[in-house]
Design brief:
- The complex is a heterodimer of chains A (about 350) and B (about 525).
- Chain A is of the alpha+beta class and about 350 residues long.
- Helix content of chain A is about 25%, strand content about 20%.
- Chain A is built from eight helices and 16 strands.
- Chain A has helices at about 20-25, 80-95, 110-120, 155-160, 190-195, 255-260, 290-305, 320-335, and strands at about 5-10, 10-15, 50-55, 60, 75, 140-145, 165-170, 175-180, 200, 215-220, 230-235, 240-245, 275-280, 280-285, 310-315, 340.
- The radius of gyration of chain A is 28 Å and the shape is elongated.
- The model of chain A has no long low-confidence stretch (mean pLDDT about 90).
- By secondary structure, chain B is α/β, with parallel strands linked by helices.
- Chain B has 19 helices and 21 strands.
- Classes of the chains: A alpha+beta (about 350), B alpha/beta (about 525).
- Chains A and B meet through strand 10, strand 11, helix 6, strand 13 and helix 7 of A and helix 2, helix 10, helix 11, helix 12 and strand 9 of B.
- Strand 15 of chain A pairs parallel with strand 9 of chain B.
Chain lengths: ~350, ~525
């Protein structure tokens, strides 16, 4: 891929010929404010925040949608641009309720950040008269229509990343409306992952934990073999939500319905909490010492009477590498058999 | 996988077979979708089910269930017939080409069409596309492996890839999609009857000596052990006791009536799990363990990337991490096993496992590492077999098509095939415990082809009895075009509709994998 040379804010930048001004600026470490732009999506151009001035063009252009050109000279910050951005943001705020105190997304909201960064006041805001709750395609996701800033990232992600295309913005009488096709939606939650505001939120956890309140733990998903990198948001020793880690090369923030919503089993009241020993066909609760002594005694006895190969062990694709290593070590070194296998084939 | 899954973005052609990727490996399906819609790659789907990715495919081959070797041989026949093979690559890097060519001679499009039902022109189009489009990757899952011919199916796909020079290059590869979070790691760590960690064989005296010395025991067993499926069959006979950690064979084994009977006749069974599973209920002792969110460690994903698992919560009640339980049993049996934490176990893995030699927690906090990664300064190996095959020359295996163990007949005229759905996972132990996924998919659904449904007078939502020689289940039907005429699909997540009571305990002779993907059943509308 050939490259071009351009100037951004007086700095000489070399960029791939097929990149946008926004990408070129980012690669040079120059920050241009954005809302609707998302790394994995085609430029949407709905928020008008990334406007920049380009020499020779009468009016500012959107950096996300404008390709670079050789010799181009770009200015990313000026009083005029700041004014335009503030105006764009005010337009969004004019119908966005300032319900940040009760919004799940507060503290992790791109809109909030931008308002703060650009110093916008919502002095023109009027509470909408008819605040309607709109049902989403699935009960796992909640759509707060008033909070929607019509960036359209959700629909783009559903179409471009997931290949599902369940979400669409339809314009009727000059008003944009998000429509969801319940036949197509599988509740993967990609839409809420990319939503920059609190317009789409998970509708599952009884716990309310803002991102900055809970303990955030980076780990690996426990379902299929993709190994998605996720973040568990933990409050009071319970998982309050799961999000995809955008910085991770494996999944780039994406997840599926199991990884995002299938966490309830962790805190299930059906979890085993104590060793159980079967006596006369019924399980009785036992202490660790009693259970472990019994196991050691019985396994030793069977080993001495029938030989080590009369004992088998199933390790687990659910467990960690360290545990699987230890399990086969136990079977081979302690029991003395190679009868160890797991569910790889099942 | 020989290649990272994101490397599919460098493929010009993708062959997808025996995988409902969108449901079972959603993130990989995303990248395949991106490769096709944004990078212009061409997609070939070869699958008896009309999976979602068929929508964006260039060619869809719909073979009869269990006829994989035939259509793969057919593709290779056409490629060689039309002289489209990568001859320089074959000459330089492989052996067995001449024998393969001889074996393929009879697999003409006509001959293959008779076995597989794939129209000749589609087979030819797919062959030409795969051979000529540029770097081509192959992705497959259990639809290829869970057959009595599973090993042969995989070898055939490897031959197809080698024939076109597609192994050891960017955008190429033969990529099995592994279905469980750490099935790759469980294999890597020696959770197999024939190898220690890093696939070091138990039959080698040198290797046994190395481990015996490190583990401080006089000697280690030299005889290859039994596979899961064989241990199940021997339970109560030569196998007297089983120690089961985090597995639920009562639901996951084929012909599960038989499997449960075996387990029930053991002298002693210990199950270590997070729930009282159907298997745990049969145990003499049940030990409460920790789930992924309650422990530190690593998982290895399907692309051989080692990923950190970090403790976020305390386990409930007296539950303990599995590694502490194993060590405690060992200690009471007279073998001291002391590790201060999971990182200390990784140190031992590093020392004894060449492919994991350089994979430390300190490095994993900063970078992604893909094994083989033998030393602390080795960058890892995202693509295997670059320049030369790990074993030296790549071998073409000449393989003949062999029919599945149980084919439909007058009494059992339908093919039953099993698998997973988008919203659940394996035996449902985790995915069915919460409300979320049950809201989306509350009960087992048997997918039945539209024409069959009409003939059976079954409507969407009706219950049907599906009966095999081994058992019978009553299940709600969904009339769909996912399956072909004469084929029904039932997921295996549901204990109350335990489809593995129907499946056949016929195993691949090499890998010992059960033939879950095909057995014969009859279907009747339930009263």
């Amino acid at each position: 891929m050939s490259t071009v040379k351009l100037t951004i804010d007086g700095q000489e930048v070399i960029a791939r010929q097929d990149s946008s001004i926004l990408q070129a600026a980012k690669s040079a470490g120059i920050k241009v404010p954005t809302l609707c732009f998302h790394e994995r999506l085609n430029p949407i151009g709905s928020c008008h925040l990334c406007v920049v001035e380009v020499d020779g063009k009468g009016t500012p252009v959107e950096a996300c949608k404008t390709p670079v050109a050789d010799g181009m000279s770009v200015v990313t910050s000026s009083d005029m641009l700041a004014g335009m951005r503030r105006k764009s943001l005010q337009r969004l705020l004019a119908h966005h309720p300032l319900d940040c105190p009760i919004c799940d997304k507060a503290g992790a909201c791109r809109l909030q950040d931008l308002v703060f960064e650009l110093g916008v006041r919502a002095d023109t805001y009027e509470e909408p008269k008819d605040r309607v709750e709109v049902a989403y395609a699935t009960s796992l996701i909640k759509y707060w229509r008033d909070r929607c800033v019509y960036c359209q990232r959700c629909a783009a992600a559903c179409r471009e990343i997931k290949g599902v295309g369940a979400l669409e913005f339809v314009e009727t009488d000059g008003v944009l409306e998000l429509t969801v096709d319940p036949e197509k939606c599988v509740s993967c939650g990609e839409c809420l992952q990319v939503c920059p505001t609190g317009a789409l939120t998970e509708n599952l956890s009884p716990l309310k934990a803002r991102r900055f309140v809970g303990k955030k733990v980076a780990t690996t998903c426990t379902y299929c073999g993709c190994g998605c990198q996720i973040e568990l948001n933990v409050l009071d020793n319970r998982v309050a939500s799961v999000i995809g880690r955008g910085d991770a090369a494996v999944n780039q923030g994406s997840m599926c319905v199991k990884g995002r919503f299938g966490y309830e089993f962790i805190g299930s009241d059906q979890r085993l909490t104590t060793p159980l020993i079967k006596r006369n066909g019924r399980f009785e609760e036992a202490g660790w010492d009693e259970a472990l002594d019994l196991i050691a005694r019985r396994l030793n006895k069977i080993k001495s009477e029938h030989g080590p190969d009369a004992i088998g062990g199933f390790s687990s694709a659910r467990c960690t590498n360290e545990e699987n290593y230890l399990f086969q070590k136990f079977m081979r070194a302690v029991i003395g058999t190679n009868n160890v296998d797991h569910c790889a084939r099942l | 996988m020989t290649n990272p899954f994101k490397d599919v973005l460098n493929s010009k052609v993708i062959l997808l077979t025996g995988t409902n990727t969108t449901a079972n490996h959603p993130i990989i399906a995303n990248y395949i979708h991106e490769a096709v819609t944004k990078r212009g790659a061409k997609l070939i789907v070869a699958d008896p089910r009309k999976i979602k990715l068929v929508d964006i495919s260039e060619v869809w081959l719909r073979p009869r269930v269990g006829t994989n070797v035939a259509w793969i041989n057919g593709l290779m026949h056409v490629i060689i017939r039309d002289n489209l093979q990568a001859q320089a690559y074959i000459d330089e890097r492989t052996t067995g080409f001449d024998e393969l060519k001889k074996c393929l001679a009879k697999y003409t499009p006509k001959y293959v069409a008779d076995i597989t039902g794939i129209p000749e022109k589609d087979l030819i189009a797919a062959a030409r596309l795969y051979a000529t489009a540029g770097p081509g990757s192959i992705f497959y899952a259990m639809g290829i492996t869970q057959h009595t011919s599973g090993t042969n199916n995989v070898k055939s796909l490897a031959s197809l890839a080698m024939l076109c020079g597609n192994i050891g290059i960017e955008g190429g590869g033969v990529n099995p999609l592994r279905g469980q979070n750490n099935v790759q790691g469980a294999c890597d760590m020696g959770g197999l009857p024939n190898v220690f960690s890093g696939y070091q064989v138990v039959t080698s005296e040198d290797i046994r000596d190395k481990f015996a010395k490190a583990w401080n025991v006089a000697k280690l067993p030299d005889k290859v052990g039994m596979a899961v499926t064989d241990m199940g069959n021997a339970a109560g006979k030569t196998i007297k006791a089983l120690y089961i950690m985090g597995e639920n064979p009562v639901l996951s084994d084929p012909d599960s009536h038989h499997a449960a009977k075996g387990l029930a006749s053991l002298d002693f069974m210990v199950v270590q799990d997070i729930f009282l599973t159907e298997t745990a209920k049969l145990a003499d002792v049940v030990l409460p363990s920790s789930c992924f969110a309650e422990k530190d460690g690593t998982f290895t994903n399907t692309e051989r990337k080692v990923l950190r698992v970090r403790k976020a919560l305390d386990a409930p009640g007296a539950a303990l991490e599995d590694y502490r339980i194993i060590a405690a049993i060992a200690k009471r049996m007279g073998y001291p096993m002391e590790y201060s934490n999971s990182s200390a176990i990784m140190d031992e893995i590093n020392a004894l496992t060449p492919s994991y030699g350089g994979i430390t927690y300190a490095r994993l906090d900063k970078e992604d590492l893909v094994w083989p990664c033998p030393t602390k300064d080795h960058p890892g190996t995202p693509i295997l077999h670059v320049g030369r095959f790990a074993r030296g020359q790549g071998v073409f295996f000449s393989i003949e098509y062999q029919p599945s163990a149980e084919l439909p007949d007058m009494d059992y005229p339908f093919v039953l095939t099993t698998g997973r759905v988008h919203w659940h996972y394996h035996t449902g132990t985790m995915s069915r415990k919460g409300t979320a996924l049950n809201r989306m998919y509350p009960e087992a659904l048997a997918e039945i082809n539209e024409e069959d449904a009409k003939r059976l007078r079954v409507a969407d939502g009706d219950y049907v009895n599906i009966v095999s020689r081994r058992g019978s289940i009553k299940v709600k039907a969904v009339v769909s075009n996912m399956t072909d005429r004469g084929v029904a699909f039932v997921p295996f997540h549901f204990y109350e509709v335990a489809v593995n009571q129907l499946t056949i305990n016929a195993l691949d002779p090499v890998s010992r994998i059960p033939e879950y993907k095909i057995c014969a059943v009859r279907i009747e509308k339930a009263a």
